[in-house]
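User: Just a sanity check before I run the rest of the batch. Below are the structure tokens for the first item. I only need the designed sequence back.
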């Protein structure tokens, strides 16, 4: 079906108040054409509370309780979750979900590490696996990436000296002071032999679903190719945001 016919089909469904339809053309032996239009369901996607199954710890926006918080909204950073200074995954995911933006979920995009942690918690509940075990078994292993050479914690590596060192450029004599104010716990230090560079010690943090998955450049390239191919052969299309 060409583009004009697709547009005609969409307009016809809208005109006749039909939410969705599947168009198929067949003969006695083959399917010549098949395409879905519109919506499979008009109801909101499943609220994350249906996955968490914890009645005493239900998650919703206190000012907009009718606006569901779904995985799609979380993964697209549009669930209206604000930032938090807490460091533990449990605290980020459950205890501090009172930290919301003043807009209803689904109406504004705001990057949220806490949202990523909440999505990881859902994955753990549904799969009955730890998040990193799930990622290794369902994504990295099918991609052919050696799980012994990746990790989110420093303890995952037998020799951290193999990891790339972290540096930041010192623009002037006040750079170190500025970094200490921004990241006091990182113990950023000067390098005696290279005065224009500062060294950041190896670090990790508990909201690892939002980042710090360490791997080789080759393995990272393999992951990026998966996304460039829309997750084909690894992920089902509906799981890709």
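Assistant: Here's the designed sequence for the first item:
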């Amino acid at each position: 079906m060409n583009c004009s016919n697709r547009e005609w089909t969409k307009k016809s469904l809208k005109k006749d108040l039909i939410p969705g339809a599947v168009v198929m053309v067949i003969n006695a032996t083959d399917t010549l054409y098949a395409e879905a239009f519109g919506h499979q369901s008009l109801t909101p996607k499943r609220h994350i509370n249906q996955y968490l199954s914890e009645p005493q710890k239900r998650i919703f926006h206190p000012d907009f309780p009718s606006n569901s918080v779904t995985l799609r909204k979380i993964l697209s950073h549009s669930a209206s979750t604000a930032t938090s200074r807490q460091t533990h995954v449990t605290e980020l995911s459950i205890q501090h979900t009172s930290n919301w933006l003043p807009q209803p979920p689904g109406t504004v995009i705001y990057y949220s590490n806490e949202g990523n942690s909440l999505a990881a918690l859902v994955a753990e509940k549904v799969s009955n696996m730890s998040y990193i075990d799930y990622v290794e078994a369902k994504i990295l292993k099918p991609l052919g990436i050696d799980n012994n050479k990746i990790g989110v914690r420093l303890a995952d590596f037998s020799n951290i000296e193999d990891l790339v060192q972290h540096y930041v450029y010192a623009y002037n004599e006040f750079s170190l002071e500025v970094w200490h104010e921004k990241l006091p716990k990182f113990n950023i230090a000067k390098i005696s032999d290279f005065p224009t560079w500062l060294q950041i010690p190896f670090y990790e943090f508990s909201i690892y679903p939002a980042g710090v998955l360490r791997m080789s450049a080759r393995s990272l390239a393999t992951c990026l190719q998966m996304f460039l191919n829309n997750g084909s052969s690894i992920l089902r299309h509906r799981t890709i945001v």
